[in-house]
User: Fold these one by one.
Assistant:
Number 1:
Amino acid sequence: MHGSLAAQPLTGPGRPDSGGVNAVTEIRRCPRCQARLSRSNPDRLCGPCRRAVGPDDRRSARLAALALPPVEDPAVQDAGPDLGAILRRFRADMRLTQQDLSDLLGFSQPYVSLLERGKRTIRDVTQLRRIARLLGLPEAAVGLLPFAA
Protein backbone atom coordinates (compact mmCIF):
# COMPACT_ATOMS: atom_id res chain seq x y z
CA MET A 1 0.00 0.00 0.00
CA HIS A 2 2.81 2.42 0.73
CA GLY A 3 4.32 1.65 -2.64
CA SER A 4 1.27 2.93 -4.52
CA LEU A 5 1.26 6.24 -2.60
CA ALA A 6 4.96 6.82 -3.18
CA ALA A 7 4.57 6.35 -6.95
CA GLN A 8 2.03 9.18 -7.24
CA PRO A 9 3.28 12.75 -7.64
CA LEU A 10 2.68 14.93 -4.62
CA THR A 11 0.13 17.63 -5.24
CA GLY A 12 -1.69 20.11 -3.05
CA PRO A 13 -1.17 23.59 -1.68
CA GLY A 14 2.44 24.65 -1.92
CA ARG A 15 3.37 22.15 -4.61
CA PRO A 16 4.61 23.64 -7.92
CA ASP A 17 2.30 21.57 -10.12
CA SER A 18 -0.87 22.07 -8.10
CA GLY A 19 -1.62 25.76 -8.69
CA GLY A 20 -2.11 26.10 -4.94
CA VAL A 21 -1.55 29.16 -2.81
CA ASN A 22 2.24 28.86 -2.74
CA ALA A 23 2.62 27.68 -6.32
CA VAL A 24 5.85 28.68 -8.04
CA THR A 25 5.29 31.63 -10.35
CA GLU A 26 7.43 33.20 -13.00
CA ILE A 27 9.81 35.84 -11.64
CA ARG A 28 9.51 39.00 -13.69
CA ARG A 29 12.48 41.34 -14.00
CA CYS A 30 12.94 44.89 -15.22
CA PRO A 31 14.65 44.77 -18.65
CA ARG A 32 16.74 47.89 -17.86
CA CYS A 33 18.23 47.07 -14.45
CA GLN A 34 17.20 43.44 -13.89
CA ALA A 35 15.49 44.33 -10.59
CA ARG A 36 12.82 41.90 -9.48
CA LEU A 37 9.31 43.22 -10.20
CA SER A 38 6.50 43.00 -7.69
CA ARG A 39 3.49 40.86 -8.56
CA SER A 40 1.34 43.96 -8.14
CA ASN A 41 3.39 45.98 -10.66
CA PRO A 42 1.50 45.90 -13.98
CA ASP A 43 4.30 47.76 -15.77
CA ARG A 44 7.22 45.96 -17.36
CA LEU A 45 9.69 48.42 -15.78
CA CYS A 46 10.49 48.98 -12.12
CA GLY A 47 9.53 52.30 -10.54
CA PRO A 48 12.97 53.97 -10.72
CA CYS A 49 13.43 52.96 -14.35
CA ARG A 50 9.90 54.14 -15.24
CA ARG A 51 10.65 57.55 -13.70
CA ALA A 52 13.98 57.72 -15.55
CA VAL A 53 12.45 56.76 -18.91
CA GLY A 54 9.29 58.83 -18.53
CA PRO A 55 5.69 57.90 -19.21
CA ASP A 56 4.70 55.18 -21.61
CA ASP A 57 4.77 56.39 -25.25
CA ARG A 58 1.11 55.51 -25.78
CA ARG A 59 0.07 57.48 -22.70
CA SER A 60 2.21 60.50 -23.55
CA ALA A 61 0.88 60.52 -27.13
CA ARG A 62 -2.68 60.37 -25.81
CA LEU A 63 -2.03 63.17 -23.34
CA ALA A 64 -0.31 65.29 -25.99
CA ALA A 65 -3.28 64.84 -28.31
CA LEU A 66 -5.57 65.84 -25.47
CA ALA A 67 -5.92 69.60 -25.76
CA LEU A 68 -7.27 70.51 -22.37
CA PRO A 69 -9.63 73.44 -22.79
CA PRO A 70 -10.51 75.56 -19.78
CA VAL A 71 -13.24 73.77 -17.87
CA GLU A 72 -16.41 75.81 -18.10
CA ASP A 73 -18.63 73.31 -16.32
CA PRO A 74 -20.09 75.14 -13.29
CA ALA A 75 -20.37 71.85 -11.40
CA VAL A 76 -16.58 71.50 -11.52
CA GLN A 77 -15.80 75.17 -10.89
CA ASP A 78 -18.20 75.47 -7.96
CA ALA A 79 -17.28 72.16 -6.36
CA GLY A 80 -15.53 73.97 -3.52
CA PRO A 81 -12.25 72.91 -1.98
CA ASP A 82 -12.93 69.16 -2.29
CA LEU A 83 -10.00 68.40 -4.57
CA GLY A 84 -10.90 64.70 -4.78
CA ALA A 85 -14.33 65.43 -6.20
CA ILE A 86 -12.83 67.92 -8.66
CA LEU A 87 -10.23 65.41 -9.88
CA ARG A 88 -12.78 62.62 -10.16
CA ARG A 89 -15.24 64.82 -12.09
CA PHE A 90 -12.49 66.20 -14.36
CA ARG A 91 -11.24 62.70 -15.07
CA ALA A 92 -14.75 61.47 -15.91
CA ASP A 93 -15.50 64.47 -18.13
CA MET A 94 -12.24 64.12 -20.05
CA ARG A 95 -12.46 60.31 -20.15
CA LEU A 96 -9.06 59.86 -18.54
CA THR A 97 -7.82 56.97 -16.47
CA GLN A 98 -6.22 57.60 -13.10
CA GLN A 99 -2.89 56.76 -14.74
CA ASP A 100 -3.46 59.39 -17.45
CA LEU A 101 -4.32 62.00 -14.83
CA SER A 102 -1.31 61.04 -12.73
CA ASP A 103 0.97 61.43 -15.77
CA LEU A 104 -0.56 64.82 -16.48
CA LEU A 105 -0.16 66.03 -12.88
CA GLY A 106 3.18 64.35 -12.19
CA PHE A 107 1.82 62.19 -9.37
CA SER A 108 1.67 58.42 -9.02
CA GLN A 109 -1.57 56.62 -9.82
CA PRO A 110 -2.05 55.39 -6.22
CA TYR A 111 -1.64 58.97 -4.98
CA VAL A 112 -4.32 60.20 -7.42
CA SER A 113 -6.58 57.43 -6.13
CA LEU A 114 -5.97 58.53 -2.53
CA LEU A 115 -6.70 62.16 -3.46
CA GLU A 116 -9.93 61.22 -5.22
CA ARG A 117 -11.14 59.17 -2.25
CA GLY A 118 -10.28 61.94 0.22
CA LYS A 119 -7.63 59.85 1.99
CA ARG A 120 -4.97 62.47 1.16
CA THR A 121 -5.20 66.22 0.80
CA ILE A 122 -2.93 68.82 -0.73
CA ARG A 123 -2.43 71.96 1.32
CA ASP A 124 0.57 73.37 -0.50
CA VAL A 125 -0.57 76.52 -2.32
CA THR A 126 2.04 76.09 -5.06
CA GLN A 127 0.84 72.54 -5.78
CA LEU A 128 -2.81 73.65 -5.82
CA ARG A 129 -2.01 76.48 -8.24
CA ARG A 130 -0.10 74.07 -10.49
CA ILE A 131 -3.03 71.61 -10.49
CA ALA A 132 -5.50 74.39 -11.32
CA ARG A 133 -3.27 75.61 -14.16
CA LEU A 134 -2.74 72.11 -15.60
CA LEU A 135 -6.45 71.30 -15.47
CA GLY A 136 -7.52 74.70 -16.83
CA LEU A 137 -9.51 75.54 -13.70
CA PRO A 138 -9.73 78.86 -11.89
CA GLU A 139 -7.71 78.84 -8.67
CA ALA A 140 -10.89 79.36 -6.64
CA ALA A 141 -12.11 75.93 -7.89
CA VAL A 142 -9.35 74.20 -5.92
CA GLY A 143 -10.01 76.26 -2.81
CA LEU A 144 -7.55 79.13 -3.30
CA LEU A 145 -8.46 82.72 -2.69
CA PRO A 146 -7.65 85.23 -5.43
CA PHE A 147 -4.23 86.81 -5.06
CA ALA A 148 -4.57 90.33 -3.64
CA ALA A 149 -1.75 92.74 -4.42
Note: Confidence is low (pLDDT under 50) at residues 4-8, 65-70, 75-80.
Number 2:
Amino acid sequence: MNIETHALGPEQVLIVLDGRLDIEGTAQIEVAFSAVSSHAKATLVDLSATPFVASIGIRLFISNAKALARRGGRLILFGAAPTVEEVLLTTGLGELATVVATRADADAALATAGAAS
Protein backbone atom coordinates (compact mmCIF):
# COMPACT_ATOMS: atom_id res chain seq x y z
CA MET A 1 0.00 0.00 0.00
CA ASN A 2 1.32 3.39 -0.99
CA ILE A 3 0.15 6.78 0.23
CA GLU A 4 0.72 10.17 -1.35
CA THR A 5 -0.40 13.44 0.19
CA HIS A 6 -0.95 16.79 -1.48
CA ALA A 7 -1.91 20.09 0.15
CA LEU A 8 -4.94 21.56 -1.62
CA GLY A 9 -5.23 24.78 0.30
CA PRO A 10 -5.55 26.04 3.84
CA GLU A 11 -6.50 23.08 6.04
CA GLN A 12 -7.30 20.92 2.98
CA VAL A 13 -5.42 17.80 1.95
CA LEU A 14 -5.68 15.14 -0.74
CA ILE A 15 -4.61 11.62 0.17
CA VAL A 16 -4.06 9.20 -2.72
CA LEU A 17 -4.07 5.52 -1.78
CA ASP A 18 -2.63 2.83 -4.05
CA GLY A 19 -3.04 -0.83 -3.14
CA ARG A 20 -5.18 -3.08 -0.99
CA LEU A 21 -6.44 -1.62 2.27
CA ASP A 22 -6.29 -4.95 4.10
CA ILE A 23 -4.55 -5.66 7.42
CA GLU A 24 -1.07 -5.27 5.93
CA GLY A 25 -1.94 -2.24 3.79
CA THR A 26 -3.69 -0.43 6.62
CA ALA A 27 -0.72 -1.04 8.93
CA GLN A 28 1.57 0.52 6.32
CA ILE A 29 -0.36 3.79 6.00
CA GLU A 30 -2.39 4.24 9.18
CA VAL A 31 0.04 6.52 11.04
CA ALA A 32 0.74 8.73 8.01
CA PHE A 33 -2.96 8.91 7.05
CA SER A 34 -4.04 9.95 10.53
CA ALA A 35 -1.17 12.43 10.94
CA VAL A 36 -1.97 14.20 7.68
CA SER A 37 -5.71 14.16 8.34
CA SER A 38 -5.23 15.52 11.87
CA HIS A 39 -3.90 18.81 10.49
CA ALA A 40 -6.76 19.34 8.04
CA LYS A 41 -10.35 20.45 8.16
CA ALA A 42 -11.08 18.69 4.88
CA THR A 43 -9.48 15.44 3.83
CA LEU A 44 -10.18 14.14 0.33
CA VAL A 45 -9.22 10.51 -0.28
CA ASP A 46 -8.67 9.15 -3.78
CA LEU A 47 -9.55 5.44 -3.82
CA SER A 48 -9.29 4.93 -7.58
CA ALA A 49 -6.23 2.67 -7.16
CA THR A 50 -7.60 0.81 -4.11
CA PRO A 51 -9.31 -2.39 -5.29
CA PHE A 52 -10.10 -3.76 -1.82
CA VAL A 53 -10.99 -2.33 1.59
CA ALA A 54 -11.19 -4.66 4.60
CA SER A 55 -12.94 -3.89 7.87
CA ILE A 56 -9.69 -2.54 9.36
CA GLY A 57 -9.49 -0.04 6.50
CA ILE A 58 -13.08 1.01 7.13
CA ARG A 59 -12.15 1.49 10.80
CA LEU A 60 -9.36 3.83 9.69
CA PHE A 61 -11.85 5.91 7.71
CA ILE A 62 -14.42 5.94 10.53
CA SER A 63 -11.93 7.04 13.19
CA ASN A 64 -10.58 9.83 10.99
CA ALA A 65 -14.08 10.93 9.91
CA LYS A 66 -15.08 11.23 13.56
CA ALA A 67 -11.92 13.17 14.44
CA LEU A 68 -12.49 15.55 11.54
CA ALA A 69 -16.15 16.04 12.51
CA ARG A 70 -15.14 16.96 16.07
CA ARG A 71 -13.03 19.76 14.58
CA GLY A 72 -15.80 20.89 12.23
CA GLY A 73 -14.23 19.16 9.25
CA ARG A 74 -15.11 16.32 6.95
CA LEU A 75 -13.73 13.27 5.18
CA ILE A 76 -14.59 12.95 1.48
CA LEU A 77 -13.89 9.66 -0.29
CA PHE A 78 -13.98 9.42 -4.08
CA GLY A 79 -13.07 7.20 -6.98
CA ALA A 80 -13.90 3.88 -5.35
CA ALA A 81 -14.62 0.88 -7.53
CA PRO A 82 -18.33 -0.05 -7.44
CA THR A 83 -17.73 -3.03 -5.14
CA VAL A 84 -15.61 -0.95 -2.76
CA GLU A 85 -18.17 1.87 -2.76
CA GLU A 86 -20.93 -0.62 -1.97
CA VAL A 87 -18.98 -1.92 1.03
CA LEU A 88 -18.30 1.61 2.29
CA LEU A 89 -21.96 2.58 2.07
CA THR A 90 -23.27 -0.73 3.46
CA THR A 91 -21.16 -0.26 6.60
CA GLY A 92 -22.75 3.13 7.24
CA LEU A 93 -19.59 5.09 6.51
CA GLY A 94 -21.68 7.36 4.30
CA GLU A 95 -23.29 8.77 7.45
CA LEU A 96 -19.89 9.89 8.81
CA ALA A 97 -18.10 10.75 5.58
CA THR A 98 -19.06 11.86 2.10
CA VAL A 99 -18.68 9.14 -0.53
CA VAL A 100 -18.81 10.34 -4.15
CA ALA A 101 -17.86 8.97 -7.55
CA THR A 102 -15.35 11.46 -8.94
CA ARG A 103 -12.81 14.09 -7.97
CA ALA A 104 -15.13 16.71 -9.46
CA ASP A 105 -17.91 15.48 -7.14
CA ALA A 106 -15.48 15.64 -4.20
CA ASP A 107 -14.50 19.20 -5.09
CA ALA A 108 -18.20 20.13 -5.35
CA ALA A 109 -18.89 18.58 -1.93
CA LEU A 110 -15.94 20.50 -0.52
CA ALA A 111 -17.21 23.76 -2.03
CA THR A 112 -20.69 23.12 -0.65
CA ALA A 113 -19.23 22.50 2.80
CA GLY A 114 -17.22 25.71 2.59
CA ALA A 115 -20.29 27.71 1.58
CA ALA A 116 -22.24 26.24 4.49
CA SER A 117 -19.66 27.30 7.10
Note: The CA atoms of residues 41 and 73 lie 4 Å apart.
Number 3:
Amino acid sequence: MIRTLSLGIPYDASTAVLLGALFLLGIFPGPELFRYDPDIAGGIFLAYLVDNVALLVLGLTLAPVFGAVLKLRETWLLRGVLLLSVKGTYSLQHSVFDMWVILVFRLIGYLMRRGGFSLAPVIIGLILGPVLENNLRRSLLISRDGLAIFVERSFSVTIPAIAGLLLACIIWTANSTGRK
Protein backbone atom coordinates (compact mmCIF):
# COMPACT_ATOMS: atom_id res chain seq x y z
CA MET A 1 0.00 0.00 0.00
CA ILE A 2 2.89 2.35 0.70
CA ARG A 3 4.18 1.89 -2.85
CA THR A 4 0.75 2.55 -4.30
CA LEU A 5 0.23 5.77 -2.36
CA SER A 6 3.76 7.10 -2.73
CA LEU A 7 4.47 6.11 -6.35
CA GLY A 8 0.98 5.57 -7.77
CA ILE A 9 1.91 2.08 -9.01
CA PRO A 10 -0.28 -0.90 -8.07
CA TYR A 11 1.62 -4.07 -7.18
CA ASP A 12 -1.27 -6.54 -7.21
CA ALA A 13 -4.91 -6.80 -8.23
CA SER A 14 -6.40 -5.56 -4.97
CA THR A 15 -4.30 -2.40 -4.89
CA ALA A 16 -5.12 -1.85 -8.57
CA VAL A 17 -8.81 -1.89 -7.67
CA LEU A 18 -8.13 0.54 -4.83
CA LEU A 19 -6.09 2.76 -7.14
CA GLY A 20 -8.95 2.77 -9.64
CA ALA A 21 -11.38 3.78 -6.91
CA LEU A 22 -9.09 6.64 -5.89
CA PHE A 23 -8.86 7.78 -9.53
CA LEU A 24 -12.65 7.79 -9.77
CA LEU A 25 -12.80 9.99 -6.67
CA GLY A 26 -10.31 12.43 -8.18
CA ILE A 27 -7.45 11.44 -5.88
CA PHE A 28 -4.24 10.71 -7.77
CA PRO A 29 -1.70 8.79 -5.65
CA GLY A 30 1.96 9.57 -6.07
CA PRO A 31 4.45 12.09 -4.71
CA GLU A 32 2.05 14.94 -5.43
CA LEU A 33 -0.54 13.46 -3.06
CA PHE A 34 1.66 14.10 -0.03
CA ARG A 35 2.60 17.59 -1.22
CA TYR A 36 -0.78 18.97 -2.31
CA ASP A 37 -3.23 16.85 -0.30
CA PRO A 38 -1.55 15.92 2.99
CA ASP A 39 -4.92 15.79 4.73
CA ILE A 40 -6.11 13.04 2.38
CA ALA A 41 -2.87 11.06 2.78
CA GLY A 42 -3.01 11.43 6.56
CA GLY A 43 -6.68 10.46 6.58
CA ILE A 44 -5.90 7.32 4.61
CA PHE A 45 -3.17 6.30 7.04
CA LEU A 46 -5.41 7.10 10.03
CA ALA A 47 -8.20 5.01 8.49
CA TYR A 48 -5.77 2.10 8.11
CA LEU A 49 -4.75 2.42 11.75
CA VAL A 50 -8.38 2.38 12.94
CA ASP A 51 -9.10 -0.47 10.53
CA ASN A 52 -6.30 -2.59 11.98
CA VAL A 53 -7.54 -2.09 15.53
CA ALA A 54 -11.14 -2.88 14.54
CA LEU A 55 -9.98 -5.93 12.59
CA LEU A 56 -8.10 -7.21 15.63
CA VAL A 57 -11.15 -6.88 17.87
CA LEU A 58 -13.58 -8.36 15.36
CA GLY A 59 -11.16 -11.10 14.35
CA LEU A 60 -10.72 -12.27 17.91
CA THR A 61 -14.43 -12.20 18.72
CA LEU A 62 -15.75 -13.67 15.46
CA ALA A 63 -13.13 -16.37 14.89
CA PRO A 64 -15.53 -19.20 15.82
CA VAL A 65 -18.11 -17.93 13.32
CA PHE A 66 -15.51 -17.75 10.55
CA GLY A 67 -14.39 -21.27 11.42
CA ALA A 68 -17.97 -22.51 11.05
CA VAL A 69 -18.25 -20.85 7.63
CA LEU A 70 -15.07 -22.61 6.52
CA LYS A 71 -16.67 -25.95 7.38
CA LEU A 72 -19.30 -25.41 4.68
CA ARG A 73 -18.83 -27.26 1.42
CA GLU A 74 -17.11 -25.17 -1.23
CA THR A 75 -20.01 -25.47 -3.66
CA TRP A 76 -22.43 -23.92 -1.15
CA LEU A 77 -19.98 -21.17 -0.30
CA LEU A 78 -19.43 -20.29 -3.97
CA ARG A 79 -23.18 -20.28 -4.60
CA GLY A 80 -23.63 -17.86 -1.70
CA VAL A 81 -20.92 -15.54 -3.02
CA LEU A 82 -22.44 -15.63 -6.51
CA LEU A 83 -25.91 -14.92 -5.13
CA LEU A 84 -24.70 -11.95 -3.08
CA SER A 85 -22.70 -10.51 -5.99
CA VAL A 86 -25.66 -10.76 -8.39
CA LYS A 87 -28.02 -9.28 -5.79
CA GLY A 88 -25.63 -6.43 -5.08
CA THR A 89 -25.14 -5.69 -8.77
CA TYR A 90 -28.87 -5.71 -9.46
CA SER A 91 -29.59 -3.48 -6.47
CA LEU A 92 -27.31 -0.72 -7.80
CA GLN A 93 -29.26 0.13 -10.97
CA HIS A 94 -32.09 -2.44 -11.07
CA SER A 95 -30.86 -3.57 -14.47
CA VAL A 96 -30.98 -7.11 -15.81
CA PHE A 97 -28.26 -6.11 -18.28
CA ASP A 98 -25.80 -5.78 -15.37
CA MET A 99 -26.49 -9.38 -14.40
CA TRP A 100 -25.77 -10.49 -17.98
CA VAL A 101 -22.49 -8.56 -17.79
CA ILE A 102 -21.63 -10.52 -14.63
CA LEU A 103 -22.39 -13.77 -16.43
CA VAL A 104 -20.27 -12.86 -19.46
CA PHE A 105 -17.28 -11.75 -17.37
CA ARG A 106 -17.63 -14.81 -15.15
CA LEU A 107 -17.42 -16.96 -18.28
CA ILE A 108 -14.41 -14.99 -19.56
CA GLY A 109 -12.70 -15.34 -16.17
CA TYR A 110 -13.41 -19.07 -16.10
CA LEU A 111 -11.99 -19.56 -19.60
CA MET A 112 -8.91 -17.49 -18.76
CA ARG A 113 -8.31 -19.50 -15.60
CA ARG A 114 -8.73 -22.76 -17.53
CA GLY A 115 -6.24 -21.44 -20.09
CA GLY A 116 -3.70 -20.66 -17.38
CA PHE A 117 -3.91 -16.87 -17.70
CA SER A 118 -3.59 -14.63 -14.67
CA LEU A 119 -6.59 -12.40 -13.97
CA ALA A 120 -4.57 -9.66 -12.24
CA PRO A 121 -3.26 -8.01 -15.45
CA VAL A 122 -6.80 -7.90 -16.84
CA ILE A 123 -8.07 -6.15 -13.72
CA ILE A 124 -5.17 -3.71 -13.77
CA GLY A 125 -5.77 -3.06 -17.48
CA LEU A 126 -9.48 -2.42 -16.94
CA ILE A 127 -8.73 0.08 -14.19
CA LEU A 128 -5.79 1.89 -15.74
CA GLY A 129 -7.09 1.74 -19.34
CA PRO A 130 -9.38 4.80 -19.07
CA VAL A 131 -6.58 6.80 -17.42
CA LEU A 132 -4.23 5.89 -20.29
CA GLU A 133 -6.89 6.78 -22.85
CA ASN A 134 -7.57 10.19 -21.27
CA ASN A 135 -3.87 11.03 -21.14
CA LEU A 136 -3.35 9.88 -24.73
CA ARG A 137 -6.24 12.05 -25.87
CA ARG A 138 -4.89 15.00 -23.88
CA SER A 139 -1.41 14.67 -25.36
CA LEU A 140 -2.80 14.43 -28.89
CA LEU A 141 -4.86 17.56 -28.32
CA ILE A 142 -1.85 19.43 -26.95
CA SER A 143 0.45 18.41 -29.80
CA ARG A 144 -1.88 19.23 -32.70
CA ASP A 145 0.72 17.47 -34.86
CA GLY A 146 -0.81 14.05 -34.52
CA LEU A 147 1.45 11.22 -33.43
CA ALA A 148 4.67 13.20 -33.91
CA ILE A 149 4.71 14.11 -30.22
CA PHE A 150 5.63 10.51 -29.42
CA VAL A 151 8.78 10.45 -31.54
CA GLU A 152 10.19 13.98 -31.40
CA ARG A 153 12.03 13.60 -28.09
CA SER A 154 14.53 10.94 -27.16
CA PHE A 155 12.75 10.07 -23.92
CA SER A 156 9.51 9.50 -25.82
CA VAL A 157 11.26 6.98 -28.05
CA THR A 158 13.46 5.32 -25.42
CA ILE A 159 10.76 4.18 -22.98
CA PRO A 160 8.56 2.41 -25.59
CA ALA A 161 11.70 0.90 -27.15
CA ILE A 162 12.75 -0.54 -23.79
CA ALA A 163 9.22 -1.83 -23.20
CA GLY A 164 9.24 -3.44 -26.66
CA LEU A 165 12.61 -5.07 -25.99
CA LEU A 166 11.40 -6.46 -22.68
CA LEU A 167 8.25 -7.80 -24.33
CA ALA A 168 10.33 -9.41 -27.08
CA CYS A 169 12.61 -11.00 -24.45
CA ILE A 170 9.62 -12.38 -22.56
CA ILE A 171 8.12 -13.85 -25.73
CA TRP A 172 11.47 -15.25 -26.86
CA THR A 173 12.12 -16.82 -23.43
CA ALA A 174 8.61 -18.34 -23.32
CA ASN A 175 9.05 -19.82 -26.80
CA SER A 176 12.52 -21.17 -26.13
CA THR A 177 11.48 -22.86 -22.86
CA GLY A 178 8.36 -24.23 -24.53
CA ARG A 179 10.42 -26.03 -27.17
CA LYS A 180 12.60 -27.90 -24.69
Note: The CA atoms of residues 86 and 103 lie 9 Å apart.
